[in-house]
Write a structure and sequence with these properties.
Shape of chain A: elongated
Mean pLDDT of chain A: 86
Oligomer: homodimer
Strand order of the largest sheet of chain A: 1-2
Number of strands of chain A: 2
Order of helices and strands of chain A: HHHHEEHH
Largest sheet of chain A: 2 strands, antiparallel
Largest interface: A-B, 32 and 32 residues
């Protein structure tokens, strides 16, 4: 009864599964080849693949005998869409930081100008 | 020993926790007010808040006595950045679909044109 977004985020909550997706982004490959870089038993890798498959993030070809795995990005798109709703929050944070840095800079410039004698306010 | 991205995705893998973040996107609020819309015991809500806090997605003010919760979007930004790497994959999928639809359309137009007599190939 879990919803698609929860399946997706849950599948992404593991560095090995994210590494598997990163490998599949380079092209489809066999399970054996996929397991190679991980110091992990084949059953352990298979378990991770099952989680990714259930979340719809990967699929396994039926036509070829070696049944290559491939990346399916649909659920990632949905997840990105959800997170995107919060973009204004992190942008606001950056804006606030930017504003703060500008204020410091302005204050520093002002104190320098005052220190070395006032410049004509008519200078553009 | 879990990494930040895994904490973030794990925290997002639950509809109640996502609803809490959506509520906090409207403004900071007390835990009691936050718990209201959920048919859930306070300890259950507190448990969800702890997961979100550990992932750095929310923080609780120390100054006010009612200790309001607020959204911290930093980890969401990081998560969006990770998913964004795969954008070309879902865009490719859409491109392929678009190409396929155009091909169908072209084939249909051609068969119509052929059916109603050939048009001069000189007509621009």
């Amino acid at each position: 009864m879990q919803d698609q977004l929860s399946y997706t985020f849950s599948a992404l909550a593991d560095p090995t599964r994210r590494a598997i997706l990163a490998r599949l982004a380079l092209g489809e490959t066999s399970v054996t080849e996929l397991a190679e870089p991980f110091e992990m038993s084949m059953p352990a890798v298979s378990k991770h693949l099952k989680v990714l498959e259930r979340a719809g993030l990967i699929s396994r070809a039926r036509e070829a005998q070696w049944r290559p795995c491939r990346l399916d990005a649909g659920p990632l798109k949905e997840a990105a869409g959800w997170i995107e709703e919060y973009r204004r929050f992190w942008e606001q944070t950056l804006d606030r930081l930017d504003k703060y840095l500008r204020e410091i800079e302005t204050a520093r410039t002002k104190s320098k100008t005052n220190g070395s004698g006032k410049k004509s306010s008519k200078t553009k």
